[in-house]
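Page 37, top half.
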Amino acid sequence: MAATGEKGLLQIIAATHAGMTTEAFSKTVAEWIATARHPRFNKPYTDLVFQPMLELLTYLRSNGFKTFIVSGGGIEFMRPWVEGVYGIPPEQVVGSSGETKFQIRPDGTPSLMKDPKVEFVDDGPGKPVGINRFIGRRPIFAFGNSDGDLQMLQWTAAGSGARFMAIVHHTDADREYAYDRNSQFGKLDKALDEANKRGWLLVDMKRDWNTIYPSQSK
C-alpha cells in the first residue's frame, strides 16, 4: 500500500465502498468518528486536530477571509464532520473523490451510488486543479505540511498582489510526530527546499507551538 501512494489507497477505498449510497457512507463515517480512538493517544480523532490551526482559521474568518480545506483525503469522508471541528462547511471542502452515479432504487427513492472507481486525486499537482475546479479562485493564503502541498503553494505564490505561503514542519516526536524527508507518508522534502529558497514561512512544531491539541489548552 505504501508503494502505491495516495492513489493506490484511494483505489482500495473506492473498491471496498462500492455499491453503497452516499447517505449510507456519510452515516458510517459519522458513526466511526464518534467512536474510533487513536491507537497511540487513545483519544477521538476529532480531539487531535491542531489548536494553532483552529485559532488561525478563526482569526482569518474574523478578518473577512473565506476558508477552505484542500486535502488529499476523501471528500465524502471529511464532509460529515469537518464543519463541527473546523467551522468549514461541506461546500468549502476540496478532496479526492470516487465516481458516483444517480439511480432510482427499487422503492422509488432517488439516490447517489458509489462506484469502485477513483474520479479525482486531490494531491500534488491535483490540488491547484481541484482548487480551480471547485473554488474557481486562486488562493491568497495557503498552508501545507508535505510535498503533496507543494504545487498548491506554488500556485498561490504565482498570483499577483500580497500572498502568504507557509509550511508546518512536524518536528515534535514527543507531543505529536517527527518526520520529513524520508517519510513514507506526509513526506516533506521538495517543499521544504522550496520554502527555504522562496522565503515561505516555516513553522517548527516543536519550537513554535506551546499547545498542539485543543485538550492541552484546557
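Page 37, bottom half:
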Amino acid sequence: MSQILIVDDDPDILRLLKAGLSKAGFEVTEAQNADIALSEIAKNKPDLVITDAMMPDKDGYMLSKELRSMPETGALPIIMLTALQEEQDALKAFKDGIDDFITKPFSMAILRARVNALLHRAYSCGQIQTAPPVQVEEVKKPLPVQRISTGYPKLDRALGNGIPVGSNAIVIGPTGAGKSTIARQFIADGITNSERCMVITVDDDPAMIRSSLDEIIPGTLESYENKDYFRLVDCYSWSRGLVGGKERFSVTGAMELNQLAGLISDAGVELGQTVQEKFGGRRIVDSVSSLFIDFELASVQRFLVQLARTASNYGGVSTLFILEEGSVSEQVLNNIKYLMDIVLEVKFDGAHMVRVANMKWSRFSREWISLED
C-alpha cells in the first residue's frame, strides 16, 4: 500500500485529505508542521508528500528545498497545495523542487488523479518500491432535471412545478410556524432522489436534525453519507458554547464567518459541489438569524452573497435559507430578499401554512398552502 504524508497546520485540511486519500486505498500519515514532517519522513519513508505552502516557522517551500538537498529524499514526489494563484507562486514552487502544484479550493478527484500519476511515474523509474492502487473513479453527472420538488406537491404547483435548479430561496416566519419542517422535507426529497445534500446548522441541534431526517428518508442517513450524498456542517455546537462538536465538519474555537465558509467548501468538495465537478444538489442553512446576532451586518451579508453566488458555479446547487421573523430590520430583510430567487412565507393559523411571496423569472401562485395536507 502506497504511503502518503500530509503536511498542514490546519486540522480541517488534514482531516479532509486523510478521508479522501484513505478512501482511495492509500495509507496516510499526518504532520502539523515541517519539523514533524521531517521526523515522519525519516521514520516511515513515505512514497509521496503533500504539503501546504503557507505554514508558520518553516513553510512548504523551505521543506521542499530541504528534502531535495538530502540524497535519501532527493527524488521523493512532492505536491504543494496553496491558496495563492499568481504565476510567480507556481514558478517558485517548481524552482524549489515541487513536482506538482494545486491551488485551493481543489477537487479531491483531481488531487487523487495527480497523486496516482506521480506515484506511477516514481514506481516505473524505480524511485519507490510500492505500486500505487488502481484508481477507479465513479463517473458522476449533474442531474438533467431543470426543476426540483420541495417535497410538497401543492407548493410545487404554486411554484410552477417546483423550484428551478440552482435557485436561492429564503423561508421567513415566526417561531414554530414550520420553517425547519419545510427545510428538512426539502433535503429529504433530495436525498430520496439521489441528489447531493448538505445541512448547515446554526440554530438546530445536529442530533435532532439527523433523527428527524432518519424518520422521513428511506434507509438511514449514515448510508447516504457513506456514499457521499450527504454532509452536515455543525455551527450549532459553537453557537451554544459547547466545546467541540461531534460532526466531522464542526466549527471550533473563535469562529469567523470565513471559517464557516471554509467548512462548507470542504464538505462541498466531498459532495462534488465544486467548480470543477459541478454535481449540483441541495443545501439548507438553518438558520441565518443567529449570524446577524453574532457578527457584523456587513460580514453576514458578504457571507450570504458568497453562498448565493455558488449556486450556478457548482452545477446548480439549490439553497434554502431560514430566517426568523423580526430578527432583522426591514431594510436588511429587503437586502436579503434582493439576493434571493424565491421568498417563502410561513405562518401558523390552526395549521402550518406556507405561501410563495415572491419568485423571480417565473409565474407563481400566492395561495396559502397547508403543510398538513
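Margin note: The first helix runs from residue 11 to 23.
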